[in-house]
C-alpha cells in the first residue's frame, strides 16, 4: 500500500492522533500516516511520540487477571433463580386476577338477583296457586302435578 499525504499535519491534529492511536505511526489510519511521518521529524513531535511510546509500553505490561472458575456458574444460578421468581409472580398475579374477576362476577350476580327479584322478607303474604316462582308466575299452562300424600 502506498501512503499518500492527505494534507498538512498540524501539532493539534498530531497530538490528537497520538492520544488516540499511540506512539507507533504504523497503527494510525492509513490516510494520516504519511503526513504524520513528515510532521514527526520536528522536535515537538518527537517528544509527543516519546511520551506516547512510554504510555504504550506501560499499557503493554498490564495483564488481565484470570476469572474465577465458579463465577460464571454463580451468575447463571442467580439469573435462573431471578427468572423463576419473576415467573412465579407473573403467573401468580394472573391467577389472583382471575380469582378477583370470579368474585366480582359472583358479587354482581348476587346483587342483580337481590335487586331484580321480589323481596322475600316483605311482610305481605302472597297467596300462590303453585305457579309462582321467585322469578315470576309460570302461568296456568304449566301443568303442575302435585302428589297428595
Q: In words, what does this structure look like?
A:
It is a single chain. The protein is an all-alpha fold and 149 residues long. 57% of the residues lie in helices and 3% in strands. The chain is built from 4 helices and 2 strands; from the N terminus they run ααααββ. The chain has helices at 11-21, 30-39, 43-60, 71-116; strands spanning 132-133, 136-137. It has a two-stranded antiparallel ribbon. The protein starts with 10 loop residues before the first helix and ends in a 12-residue tail after the last strand. Residues 1-5 have low confidence and may be disordered.
Concise overview:
The chain is an all-alpha fold. The protein is built from four helices and two strands, in the order ααααββ. Helices cover 57% and strands 3% of the residues.
Amino acid at each position: 500500500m502506498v501512503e499518500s499525504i492527505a494534507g498538512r499535519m498540524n501539532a493539534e491534529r498530531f497530538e490528537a492522533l497520538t492520544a488516540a492511536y499511540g506512539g507507533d505511526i504504523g497503527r494510525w489510519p492509513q490516510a494520516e500516516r504519511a503526513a504524520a511521518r513528515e510532521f514527526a521529524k520536528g522536535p515537538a513531535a518527537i517528544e509527543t511520540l516519546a511520551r506516547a511510546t512510554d504510555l504504550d509500553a506501560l499499557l503493554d505490561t498490564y495483564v488481565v487477571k484470570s476469572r474465577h472458575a465458579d463465577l460464571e456458574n454463580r451468575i447463571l444460578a442467580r439469573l435462573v433463580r431471578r427468572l423463576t421468581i419473576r415467573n412465579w409472580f407473573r403467573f401468580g398475579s394472573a391467577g389472583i386476577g382471575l380469582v378477583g374477576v370470579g368474585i366480582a362476577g359472583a358479587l354482581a350476580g348476587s346483587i342483580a338477583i337481590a335487586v331484580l327479584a321480589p323481596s322475600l322478607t316483605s311482610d305481605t303474604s302472597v297467596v300462590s296457586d303453585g305457579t309462582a316462582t321467585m322469578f315470576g308466575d309460570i302461568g296456568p299452562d304449566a301443568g303442575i302435578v302435585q302428589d297428595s300424600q
